[in-house]
């Protein structure tokens, strides 16, 4: 078991995220070939007080999220070219982009990131009560680690997605939210 004060010790990975060149083709691959779904589409996401490398940014992105058993699969589509964790030197296509760990206290994650000498690439608010940090522990592109302190209702939101996957019959492979 990893030490509690390390990045791995904060908690298990709950998500694998990808940055596909062709977002629609990736959705088709995951739903039709892999049988993962349904994907829930959240468009035009803007993190509150978002910073990239410490500087404010107005990055906007879309995600599609589904569950493959207990593992969340996220597909990310940038909606503009503003600095973010998926642009510049952190841009990768058609392979793993980042993993995600849900944390109860974002400051515990921040301390583990700082202790590891990792670079905070992006951080910002998720809703009114949530917070996210995307950090590079040194791997670079494809090795970002996301830490998210879920906003109120976030756990229930993910539970709804997981339940939909457990009972998915292949219909409505992509479901637009919000």
TrEMBL record:
Short name of any one Pfam family annotated for the protein: Glyoxalase_4
Entry superkingdom: Bacteria
Name of the protein this chain belongs to: Glyoxalase
């Amino acid at each position: 078991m990893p030490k509690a004060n390390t990045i791995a010790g904060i908690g298990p990975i709950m998500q694998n995220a990808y940055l596909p060149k062709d977002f629609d083709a990736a959705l088709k691959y995951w739903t039709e070939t892999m049988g993962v779904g349904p994907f829930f589409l959240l468009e035009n996401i803007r993190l509150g007080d978002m910073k990239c490398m410490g500087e404010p940014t107005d990055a906007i992105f879309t995600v599609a999220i589904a569950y493959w058993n207990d593992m969340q699969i996220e597909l990310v589509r940038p909606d503009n070219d503003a600095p973010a964790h998926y642009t510049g030197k952190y841009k990768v296509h058609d392979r793993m982009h980042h993993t995600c760990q849900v944390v109860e206290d974002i400051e515990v994650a921040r301390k583990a990131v700082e202790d590891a000498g990792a670079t905070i690439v992006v951080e910002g608010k998720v809703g009114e009560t949530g917070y996210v940090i995307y950090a590079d522990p040194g791997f670079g592109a494809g090795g970002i680690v996301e830490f998210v302190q879920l906003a109120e209702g976030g756990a229930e939101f993910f539970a709804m997605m997981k339940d939909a996957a457990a009972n998915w019959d292949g219909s409505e492979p992509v479901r637009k939210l919000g």
